[in-house]
Amino acid sequence: MKSVGLIVPLVFVMASASQGATVGNADEAVEQYITISEMAKGISEYNLPRIKSLSGTKTVLYFADDGHDFAVEYRFVDDQVLHWQVLDGPEKGASGYSEYIATNPKEGYDYVEFIAGSNQATMVALVLDRKRNIATGIFGHFPREKDDQWSMYQRSARKMTLTAARVRILSASVAVPMTQATPRHDLDSKDLVGTRRLYRYSVKDAYEHIYHDNHNFTWHCVSGNEKGLADTDYAQVVKFEDGFYMIAWVEKVMHVVSAITLNFETMRSSGAMASFAGWDYGEIINVPVGAIIKDIPGVTQADLELPNRK
User: Fold this and answer.
1) Contacts of residue 15, Cβ cutoff 8 Å, sequence gap at least 6
2) Per-residue pLDDT, 183
3) Neighbours of 183 (CB within 10 A)
4) Into how many domains does the chain fold?
5) Quick check: is 147 in a domain?
6) What is the pLDDT of residue 154?
7) Domain range for residue 285?
8) According to the model, what pLDDT value does residue 234 have?
9) Is residue 21 predicted with pLDDT exceeding 90?
């Protein structure tokens, strides 16, 4: 995964002419970052309502395309808890219970997200396409402290990803194994490149998103708990159909993994974010998020043209 450097807000202190201008303590900017537990207070107000229709049902997904095919059964015990069990693949036999988040971001699609793994360190987000009996899975993996000892400079020097957290995006088929003929969602869509949108998550919390090429996007909090913070992070966009997408991104600073559906027909987003509950490498928690979307001008090809000079 490639990403660009961290954008850190700098405080410039005006000094006397003899002293020149000095740069304020960049560590002050770090104090503005908040944990996902604190962030949850402002990013769920406009989320879609949770659905109960999955309660009592069971779905088996056959994942492929990463060289290690595997199958998982998801049994929705009720409208809050599911049981997952790996039926085939390298982790065959692994199982567990998890609380889940489920919404219906578009007719014919269900979104499901939960925290799984024997050490509760994996985020799983599924978009179930009932129209074609296929699915896309997002698997976010979080580091432990021993795996997160390198600075971004050192990670770059070692040709490592800048993010210690990582994500896999896989295609799946519902109920039957995948074949070459099985349809798949576009796991790496470029449709959003060059666009810019405002996402209002609550009365006070709003972020602008700018979608770049080469798997980068910029988020900037213009109002709310993180006002003034911005960064450019790794992102990948999945296309389900025209006007309906999902963006998955990984944040370098807070080890946040997000999987958010984007419905540009209703102009609503819905999904979840996951990260460490506090300033440690302990419990991973997930937070439902959703926003009202507004288009704002982005970069067009015309903007790249130089003015005519006589």
Assistant:
1) 21, 22
2) 96
3) 12
4) 1
5) yes
6) 92
7) 36-300
8) 94
9) no
Q: Indicate whether 267 belongs to any domain.
A: yes
pTM: 0.85
Q: What is the pLDDT of residues 33-62, one digit of tens each?
A: 888 887 777 677 899 999 999 999 999 999
Rounded Cα distance between 182 and 118, Å, is 31
Structure tokens at 124: 């799983």
Give Cβ neighbours of residue 285 (< 8 Å, ≥ 6 apart): 36, 37, 115, 274, 275, 276, 277
Cβ(219)–Cβ(205) below 8 Å: no
Number of Cα atoms under 13 Å in the Cβ half of residue 93: 1
* pLDDT at residue 119, rounded to an integer: 65
- Asked whether residue 25 is assigned to any structural domain, the reply reads no
Q: For the ranges 2-16, 157-171, 192-206, 296-310, which has the lowest average pLDDT?
A: 2-16
